[in-house]
Amino acid sequence: MQTHDLVQKDSFGEKIFEQKIDNEIKIEPKDWMPEAYRKTNIRQVSQHAHSEIVGMLPEGAWISRAPSLKRKAILIAKVQDEAGHGLYLYSACETLGITREETINDLHSGKAKYSSIFNYPTKTWADIGAIGWLVDGAAIMNQVMLTRTSYGPYARAMVRICKEESFHQRQGFEILLMLSKGTDEQKAMCQDAIDRWWWPSLMMFGPHDSESTNSEQSMKWKIKRKTNDELRQNFVDMCAEQVKVLGMKIPDDKLKWNEQRMHYDFGEINWDEFWNVVKGNGPCNKERLDARKKAWEEGEWVREAAAAFAEKRKTKQQTAA
Ligand SMILES: [Fe+2]
Ligand SMILES: [Fe+2]
């Protein structure tokens, strides 16, 4: 095939790609896709996968300290779900032509990011409630939109993930609800956790649309369906109502219902803090990455054993044939 033919093939491929996007037909692994679309998806899906497994760490720290056997069982199930989410997403990422090792290496070298929210510490049991309600809540807001993302394997992984995320959010809210009906000390603990997790949760939606470099193209390719600011507003509207059930306060003096906009107004995020944590200077960035690297090193024998077993089975099948 000559270069000329290749160029023709690509422009043909691009036309089909665009038609599929316009007609809401999913892009599948073997379809032609623009290189930038592939790269954007690799960046987003891998970042999402990393967030799922790094997200296991702050909550995992409370498994041994959960206040009852029931709470311990629920928390183990939740943390295990997050590991499963990581697996679906790493697999979806591999369909884009990058190996598992490459994506993990990018996490360990700091080249790839994960959600900054997991660089904050979990100081009390109420933090487990606040994470479920606010962090999983913010994640759902984002992920429901992603069940309709244009890349097929990513969209299908998200359908399954969303079902589990709604359980996560409810279990978190229920922890806070119990504390909010408890002793003065428990009520204070509940409010303190909300105070510490509220603003980092709002940061999870990323920079303002005007500052977000990838947003516009991602909307055109239907990787994203709503902008950062739209999703953040939906989240604020939802939480401002739910917090009333808890009888707690959202730590924002500017939070107020706006009749004209039919949305809640709210205060400005501390963007210096946001960028500082993104750049690796949050309270737990180093601790989280060290824990992931350690887990990868300690799991080496498992990977080797799995590969040796697969090889053994292949030889056995070949001999039998
Ligand atoms: Fe998850
Ligand atoms: Fe979750």
% residues in beta strands: under 5%
Helical/strand content category: mainly alpha
The rounded Rg comes to 22 Å
Largest sheet: 2 strands, antiparallel
Secondary-structure element sequence? Answer: HHHHHHHHHHEEHHH
What separation lies between the terminal Cα atoms? 38 Å
Strand order of the largest sheet: 1-2
What does this structure look like?
The protein is mostly helical. Helix content is 69%, strand content 2%. It has 13 helices and two strands. The protein has helices spanning 3-22, 35-54, 56-60, 69-94, 100-109, 125-146, 152-180, 184-203, 215-220, 228-246, 271-281, 285-298, 300-320; strands at residues 256-258, 263-265. Helix 2 packs antiparallel against helix 4 (69-94) and helix 6 packs antiparallel against helix 7 (152-180). The longest helix is centred in the middle third of the chain and has 29 residues, at 152-180. The chain is globular. Mean pLDDT is 93; it is low at 1-8. It binds fe (ii) ion (2 copies). One fe (ii) ion binds next to helix 6 and helix 7.
Keywords, please?
mainly alpha; two-stranded antiparallel ribbon; 69% helix; globular; binds fe (ii) ion
Detail the topology: elements first, then pairings.
Blueprint: H1 3-22, H2 35-54, H3 56-60, H4 69-94, H5 100-109, H6 125-146, H7 152-180, H8 184-203, H9 215-220, H10 228-246, E1 256-258, E2 263-265, H11 271-281, H12 285-298, H13 300-320
Helix pairs in contact: 2-4, 4-7, 6-7, 6-8, 6-10
